[in-house]
Amino acid sequence: MNAKNSEFSKWVSCWGTATSITKRTEITYSKDLTLRYPVKMCFSGSKLRFRFSNITGTEDVKVSKAFCAKNVGAEYKPIPITKGSSKTFIIPAGKEIESDEIPFDVNAGDTIEVSMYFADFTQMNAGTALLTNLEQGYFAYGDYAESRDLPDDLSMATNIFYFLNTIDIFTEEKNHALICYGDSISCLSWPNFLAERAFKNGSGNVSIIRRAVCGTRILRQYDCITYQAYGLKGATRFPIETNVAGASAIIIHHGINDIIHPVGIEVNKFRPWSDMPSVQDLIDGVKKTYIEPARKMGLKVWSATLLPIYGWRTYNENRESIRKEFNEWLRTSKDFDGCIDFDKAVRDSKNPESFAEGCDSGDHLHPSDKACELMANEVPDCLIEF
Fold first, then answer.
1. pTM as predicted
2. Residue 184: helix, strand or coil by DSSP?
């Protein structure tokens, strides 16, 4: 049931993703394109606002029109999303913008659809690929932003979320957001399983805001086009991605790519050994880049341990030693409000360097869906039961 409008008193982010440079291909422009993203609403509320991101774009993006609608029942009433009262708006290169507030009654559990139409040639540089089958969008050739259905012969599913970055809802004072910050492992399903757990078995007061980019590192970033999609470094990402209305806490699960990427220029000229961090480098990076600014924002900060990597193509004993030492700091440091031991939840009890049976996706780095469920269940109740 929707709460009374008089009970709605603050803005809280109810859905979000990160923004990175999308994977480089020969084709980086689209024209006459509709994007549609379904989003399950975790809170009831009376108004919505939308953040659109082009922070990794080098050209302005013109949104010809954008709409929000509930795709339930017999009626389909798309409501225009505007900026400065205009139905057409620009997302400047290197910037994020926030839409006007739009009246939109939502009940917790509703699914809304956000549709955008791009009539002109559009640089598709700003977006994030999610690696879960529990969340996806769609694209269609042609203008179908106001249509209930996308034509089967002109549309396909996509796992890349372009431009749409955050949805805020005007909701009850009790509601707040939990940020899940990380890399490709957080692009998988564990935040989705956590969101379902919070919605069904928690207090119902918590949204799960995913801020994850495949390949990203704490200390470094790639500026060559081969690896640009691996994302911005932590110091650049963090101030942008912690812009979350109503956030009360953040889970930080980051650092494995810092450990596994360097291989030496004789193997890959973009991955020098000079990028290889020490344990102290990682600790200092987390403290300065994440913990200190998060505390200034008033956020509770939870660490999450790095998963097993035995069998991964760059695995060696030195990397394993760094992972174990860094995990021990994550578990014991008083700099955090607590630690979520993902490593313990998914590792083999007899061979702790490896995933437990059924928990390895197959590449010896990324967890399976079974492991993602275990990870979500490892998050303590206090983070979803305020």
1. 0.96
2. helix
Report which of 40, 66, 30, 22 is spatially closest to residue 162, judged by C-alpha positions: 22
Beta-ladder partners of 243: none
Residue 72 structure tokens: 């339930």
Structure tokens at 95: 């910037």
Helix (H) or strand (E) holding 187: helix 184-187
pLDDT digits (tens, 9 = 90+) for 212-270: 999 999 999 998 999 989 999 999 999 999 999 999 999 999 999 999 999 999 999 99
d(Cα 376, Cα 369) in Å, to the nearest integer?
10
* pLDDT higher than 60, residue 1: no
Whole-number CA gyration radius for the chain: 21
Neighbours of 57 (CB within 10 A): 23
Between CA 18 and CA 250 the distance in angstroms is 14
Nearest-angstrom CA–CA distance, 229 and 20: 6
CA distance 54 to 247: 22
For residue 2, name the pLDDT band (cuts at 50, 70, 90).
Answer: low
- Tell me the pLDDT tens digit for each residue of 158-181: 999 999 999 999 999 999 999 999
Q: How far apart are CA 224 and CA 222, in angstroms?
A: 6
Contact by Cβ (8 Å): 112, 39? yes
How many CB atoms are located within 10 Å of the residue 20 CB? 26
DSSP 288: I
Q: Does the pLDDT value for residue 72 go beyond 80?
A: no
Nearest to 345 by CA among 332, 335, 358, 333: 358
